[in-house]
Amino acid sequence: MSKHASHQLRIIGGQWRSRRLRFPAVDGLRPTLDRVRETVFNWLQFDVEGARILDAFAGSGALGFEALSRGAKEVIFLEKNASAALQIKDNLKLLEAHNAQVWAGDALLWMEQNPEPFDLVFLDPPFHKDLLQPAIDKLELLPGALIYIEHEATLKPQFPANWAEKKNKTTKEFTFRLFQVLA
Question: d(Cα 64, Cα 176) in Å, to the nearest integer?
């Protein structure tokens, strides 16, 4: 596959339902599967509209775009890979989405320097890179905030004591979970 090859993802709900967006063929970039996104956004059906959202390790931006399509107030996309970050920006222009920002750089550094309150955080770092635990440790969230995490099925991260797990599912390859910060 050439370095200029691209793939597509489909937005599954909201105002941009069925729209297809391109994303670059980048090593380790794996958009959250349609069926997983459908489950996650069913879990979040009453929590996305009007929410301020952080899509850390955005990759294709699938989760953030899905949230914008469903009425998120704002999405901040963090993506270290320059071509992936550029494609997220291009897709935002294509959709005429003005309530989002893309930060092309290290998500862990950004979270350290910007301890902002978010209503919902998507944490789906590249697998086998030891990024999840440092990301969890850097998050500073207010009570009530939701955190969606996707990780390798074999990984056993440590979560803060004030994070209550609300939902989870595991496949052979990965686990996805939803937490809420308690008071």
Answer: 16
| Tokens of residue 5, six digits | 């090859």
What is the domain range of residue 145? 6-181
DSSP 130: S
Q: Which of 158, 162, 113 shows the shortest CA–CA distance to 132?
A: 158
The total domain count for the chain is: 1
pLDDT in tens, 13-50: 999 998 999 888 777 777 777 889 999 999 999 999 99
Residue 68 lies in a domain: yes
pTM here? 0.92
Question: Which residue reads 């709900």 in tokens?
Answer: 13
Could you tell me the CATH number of the domain that includes residue 167? 3.40.50.150
Pseudo-torsion of CA 77, 38, 72, 136, nearest 10°? -50
Q: Domain for residue 1, yes or no? A: no
In a domain, 61, yes or no: yes
Which residue, 74, 161, 64, is CA-closest to 116? 74
Residue 77 lies in a domain: yes
